[in-house]
């Protein structure tokens, strides 16, 4: 096996079982491993530390597969995937046929994400190691899940950091249909496998959509960055007085309108445009709401982007506070890995202050149980949410 030998003292994070090795920690490479090949990682004193996937074009030069000296083969992936799928069976309710089956590092499979939508599994591979084992991973998912087909949506921007090109294709089973409907808590949502965000839907927001439904009755609701209508439809199903949903994508709004019709729900006010500009227009028009949901795209993919992202998060949340009536609620989220929970709370506090609003945090929101966070991998805690109440304006 090829080897990576670390610089003196750089083994500490691996001994805490953090699964990433950065290029600056490596003293030398023994052998000539190719992208995705398995390498052993050793300390400067020769101590074995882990086996990992090598990624020479990334700053994360190795991602750990296992902490013991063992073969990485088909049996390894079958066992890891079987364990991940079995764990979901014990923690999820029966109110949905869509869930995350494999959640990357938190399931011991760096760079591997697999989401189930009915009888289809959508696979996303974002690391050189995952890419190398594509066919083995697909076969194991098909066998363990019992699904009839595997779609691949390996088009996340982070693949470029690994030197990988985008892949969107049917990997196992029939290519068609590319649009399917899933069920979630009594609602149906059409999923666009080929062009939808992420793997087709924001499965990580399932519990938070349910929460918005319980809060919406009798309220005027604004859903910012609504995508395919997840929060908007739950607000309508929960008895909202009115729902205004905004997004910059005409395709997303068409999908959202279609989902409202699919569920025979009263139509929301669907508005296309820049969400920042639309919220400013609402402010200038004197419009107000009782519940605002903000689930924007990832403003900060890494900590290097945190400063710019902080300004964007503050601006949009400041506008939301200005639109809320006294007693109104703000459910606000960040999916940016580069923005910590502490920083996000400080940003929201600053937004409320600048808006002249006194507000309280009444709950902290996060992903569902099918998106676990390994204690040795805090970077997996990417989705942060706050439920705030305005006490005065």
Supply Rg: 22 Å
Helix fraction, binned, reads: 25-40%
* Total domain units: 3
How far apart, in Å, are the first and last alpha carbons?
Answer: 64 Å
Question: Notable features of this structure?
Answer:
3 domains; 393 residues; Transcription Regulator spoIIAA; alpha/beta; Archaeosine Trna-guanine Transglycosylase, Chain: A, domain 4; Rossmann fold; single chain
Structure explained in plain terms:
The protein has 393 residues and is α/β, with parallel strands linked by helices. The chain folds into three domains: 2-66, PUA domain (Archaeosine Trna-guanine Transglycosylase, Chain: A, domain 4, Roll); 74-177, 2-Layer Sandwich (Transcription Regulator spoIIAA), CATH 3.30.750; 202-392, Rossmann fold. It is built from ten helices and 20 strands. The strands form four sheets. A seven-stranded mixed β-sheet has the order 16-15-14-17-18-20-19, sandwiched between helices. A six-stranded mixed β-sheet has the order 2-6-5-4-1-3. A five-stranded mixed β-sheet has the order 7-8-9-10-11. Helix 2 (74-91) crosses helix 4 (134-145), helix 5 packs parallel to helix 6 (230-237) and helix 9 (306-323) packs across helix 10 (341-355). The longest helix has 18 residues, at 74-91.
């Amino acid at each position: 096996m090829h080897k990576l030998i670390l610089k003196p003292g750089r083994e500490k994070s691996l001994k805490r079982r953090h699964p990433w090795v950065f290029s600056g920690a490596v003293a030398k490479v023994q052998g000539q491993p190719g992208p995705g090949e398995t390498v052993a990682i050793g300390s400067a004193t020769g101590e074995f530390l882990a086996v990992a996937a090598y990624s020479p074009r990334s700053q994360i030069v190795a991602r750990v597969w296992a902490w013991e000296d063992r073969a990485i083969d088909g049996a390894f992936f079958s066992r890891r995937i079987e364990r991940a799928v079995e764990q979901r069976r014990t923690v999820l309710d029966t109110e949905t046929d869509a869930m995350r089956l494999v959640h990357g590092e938190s399931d011991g499979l760096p760079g591997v994400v697999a989401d189930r939508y009915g009888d289809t599994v959508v696979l996303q591979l974002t690391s050189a190691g995952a890419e190398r084992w594509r066919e083995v991973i697909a076969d194991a998912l098909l066998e363990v899940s019992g699904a009839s087909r595997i779609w691949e949506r390996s088009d996340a921007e982070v693949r470029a950091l690994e030197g990988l090109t985008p892949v969107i294709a049917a990997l196992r089973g029939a290519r068609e249909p590319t649009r399917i409907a899933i069920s979630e808590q009594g609602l149906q949502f059409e999923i666009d496998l080929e062009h939808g965000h992420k793997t087709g839907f924001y499965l990580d927001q399932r519990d938070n959509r349910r929460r918005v439904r319980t809060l919406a009755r009798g309220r005027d609701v604004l859903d910012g960055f609504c995508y395919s209508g997840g929060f908007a439809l739950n607000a309508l199903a929960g008895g909202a007085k009115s729902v205004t949903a905004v997004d910059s994508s005409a395709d997303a709004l068409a999908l959202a309108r279609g989902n409202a019709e699919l569920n025979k729900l009263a139509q929301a006010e669907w508005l296309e445009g820049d969400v920042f500009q639309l919220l400013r227009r609402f402010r200038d028009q004197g419009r107000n709401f009782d519940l605002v949901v903000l689930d924007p795209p990832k403003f900060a993919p890494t900590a290097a982007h945190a400063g710019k992202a902080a300004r964007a998060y503050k601006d949009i949340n400041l506008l939301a506070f200005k639109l809320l009536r006294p007693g109104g609620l703000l459910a606000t989220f960040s999916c940016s890995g580069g923005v910590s929970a502490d920083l996000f709370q400080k940003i929201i506090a600053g937004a409320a202050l600048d808006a002249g609003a006194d507000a309280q945090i009444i709950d902290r929101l996060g992903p569902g149980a099918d998106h676990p966070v390994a204690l040795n991998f805090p970077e997996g805690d990417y989705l942060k949410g706050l439920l705030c109440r305005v006490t005065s304006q």
